[in-house]
Amino acid sequence: MDWKALPAFLAVARQGSLRAGAEQVGGTHATVRRQVEALEAGLGVQLFRRSAEGLSLTAAGRTLLPQALEAEAALLKGFNAVQGLDREAAGRIRVSADPMTAHFLLAPVLAEFSRLYPEIDIDLTLSYSVESIEKLETDVSVRHMGRVDEDVVGRKLFPLPIGIYASRSYVDRNLERAGPRGAGLEWIGYGPVPELEALIRRSPFPDARVRHTVADPEMHMHLARAGAGMSFLASWVASVFPELQRVPGTVPDETRSTWVLLHQDLRRVRRVRLFVDYLCAALLERRAEVVGG
Question: What is the Cα–Cα distance from 122 to 131, expressed in whole angstroms?
């Protein structure tokens, strides 16, 4: 059944003419006539009797009318319930972020937001893979990237420099006696990751030995803190762990920025808007430590 025919039927039944019914539903005379005729053809009955005075319901039309009114009332009730949900500061929001960002930057922000809005619950997914907003795998995503390829709404907050970091003790012990192009120094390796291999080649230390294979950036950070070698890390690590420092003579890579992304259909959902506004403001307050040095 073409459900657009139901409002046309009700409008004509109430108004007694095609023209007045069309005005009620905001359509044209011809469109409403086609919808009513299609409904009659689909049901195999005549719903209106045409006369000089206008249109009146047939016996079949009078039988259909209460059922149509009941369906209309149920739909309106559903519409009102849904509209109310989006206006409320309550409900659940699915958020995704990488574990490093979540553990060290988002945890205090989420805790404070939860105190301010006790009726909003957060489902937080931690992963280094990217959950798709377009495919509705998440509602809000905190990501670090050069550009956004998805058809989403995004707020670009600030650059996220990636630098070469090591413990202060490792730098003091090894940097001065290193050979040309970093010979004698050690990288903590990520394995065969082309982007990071390219960063090593472009660094001042392309001949430093790549040791270990550790896929988890947080473990890289802890190994570097313990003096196991150098690694590429977000610049904010030094503000959290002062025993780390950017290796002297190196320049951060600033091709990435921190983004907060959400599905465009969620912009008008109040709980999501409240969360995104709060999250962006809180991260911007921490800009100095996130951008680092």
Answer: 16
Both tokens of 100, joined, read: 């490093």
Instruction: Say if CB 227 and CB 168 are below 8 A apart.
Output: no
Cα–Cα distance for residue pair 182/187, rounded to 1 Å: 10
Q: Are strands 231-234 and 91-97 parallel, antiparallel or unpaired?
A: unpaired
**Residues 77-97: what's their mean pLDDT?**
73
Residue 165's CB: how many other CB atoms inside 10 A? Answer: 28
- What single-letter amino acid sits at 33? R
Query: What pLDDT digit, counting tens, does each position of 122-172 carry?
Result: 999 998 877 777 777 889 999 988 887 777 888 999 888 999 999 999 999
For the chain, the average pLDDT equals 88
Query: What are φ and ψ of residue 196, in 5° steps?
Result: -75, -35
Whether 55 and 16 have beta carbons less than 8 Å apart is answered as yes
In this predicted model, which residue has the larger pLDDT, 84 or 54?
54
The string of DSSP letters for 85-116 reads: HHHSS-EEEEEEE-HHHIIIIIHHHHHHHHHH
Residue found by looking up tokens 């630098």 in the block: 163
Residue 85 has pLDDT above 70, yes or no: no
